[in-house]
């Protein structure tokens, strides 16, 4: 399987008058910014606010280069997981869980998401808030919009960013993130911030950059909004019997989330049905005798690891539609929860 790694190295700021697409070849970056200002005002932002927040912008040439040249590496789950969930991160995650347990418990009760999954996403997205990106969000989004290949997408992120600034959640000087616009300790893109960010401490702001209460509440609110249930876990690795019909494994091929969900529905069976087909836990024990549906998935192929995925897996796949990423979240959450922290 090929996994794309987004490079977020140092960017080179240049004053640009041209870019690579045909539209940008005809319109200077400075004129493009002026056009954006008019669009923003037409969308209801006050002219003084727009001029203040879209002035002095810089075309970031290195960001466009990073967007175009995302390298691909051959990776398997067996090589990916030890790098994403090393022992030091497991220890740190368990320590963070214990240290923040009162806050996590409150957030968990409010949103119905187990604390170990909140900590797992926090750990894997930004190493517990330590790696958030240092690129100016507005400059990055305007640069990528001007580049033109995904103009509509990045324009929508820009309008959402202006809303975030207008609502006062953070100042523009501190409005930093990845080169592609992911922000804060949970790495929300601006439209995800608008949809899911939550005020975890009642101060009227949603500060996912510095405030752990807001970070944890935002992660939990995202999962809750996408159908999370605290009555189940994410899935489990399983063993298949000799001669198992591999056509029962969920098809991964899809052009979008809707088709992926249709594939899920087609492959779903109850745990009782999977047991009758000979599917067992990794140690050969029978599957839990609970009323749950699940699908069989293979992050690599039928020769690699096999998992039974529960409905919460779908919520995690909405966060990041990567079988490897979701498996790493679930694996770290399991290691946080077991053995039980005293």
TrEMBL record:
One of its GO terms (biological process) is peptidoglycan catabolic process. Coiled coil: none annotated. InterPro entries: Lysozyme-like_dom_sf, MltB-like, MltB_2, SLT_2. GO terms for molecular function: peptidoglycan lytic transglycosylase activity. Residues 28-334 form the Transglycosylase SLT domain. Pfam families: SLT_2. It comes from the Bacteria. Keywords: Signal. The keyword Signal applies. Residues 1-24 form the signal peptide. This is Lytic transglycosylase.
């Amino acid at each position: 399987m090929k996994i794309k790694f987004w490079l977020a190295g140092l960017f080179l700021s240049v004053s640009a008058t041209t870019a690579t697409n045909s539209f940008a070849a005809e319109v200077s970056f400075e004129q493009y910014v002026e056009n954006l200002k008019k669009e923003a005002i037409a969308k209801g932002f006050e002219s003084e606010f727009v001029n203040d927040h879209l002035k002095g912008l810089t075309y970031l040439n290195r960001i466009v280069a990073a967007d175009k040249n995302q390298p691909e590496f051959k990776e398997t789950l067996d090589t990916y997981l030890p790098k994403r969930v090393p022992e030091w991160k497991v220890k740190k995650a368990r320590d963070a869980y214990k240290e923040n347990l009162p806050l996590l418990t409150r957030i968990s009760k409010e949103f119905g998401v187990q604390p170990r999954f909140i900590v797992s996403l926090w750990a894997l997205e930004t190493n517990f808030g330590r790696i958030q990106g240092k690129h100016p969000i507005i400059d990055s989004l305007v640069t990528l919009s001007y580049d033109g290949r995904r103009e509509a997408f990045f324009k929508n992120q820009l309008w959402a960013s202006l809303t975030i600034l207008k609502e006062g959640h953070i100042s523009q000087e501190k409005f930093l993130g990845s080169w592609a616009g992911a922000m804060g300790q949970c790495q929300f893109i601006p439209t995800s911030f608008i949809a899911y960010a939550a005020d975890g401490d009642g101060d009227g702001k949603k500060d996912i950059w510095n405030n752990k209460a807001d970070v944890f509440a935002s992660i939990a609110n995202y999962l809750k909004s996408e159908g999370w249930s605290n009555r189940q876990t994410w899935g489990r690795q399983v063993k298949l019997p000799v001669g198992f019909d591999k056509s029962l494994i969920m098809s991964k091929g899809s052009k979008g989330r809707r088709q992926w969900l249709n594939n899920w529905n087609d492959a779903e069976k109850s745990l009782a049905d999977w047991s009758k087909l000979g599917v067992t836990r990794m140690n050969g024990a029978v599957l839990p005798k609970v009323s749950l549906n699940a699908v069989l998935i293979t992050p690599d192929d039928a020769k690699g690891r096999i998992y039974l995925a529960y409905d919460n897996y779908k919520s995690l796949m909405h966060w990041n539609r990567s079988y490897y990423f979701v498996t790493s979240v679930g694996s770290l959450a399991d290691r946080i929860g077991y053995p039980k922290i005293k």
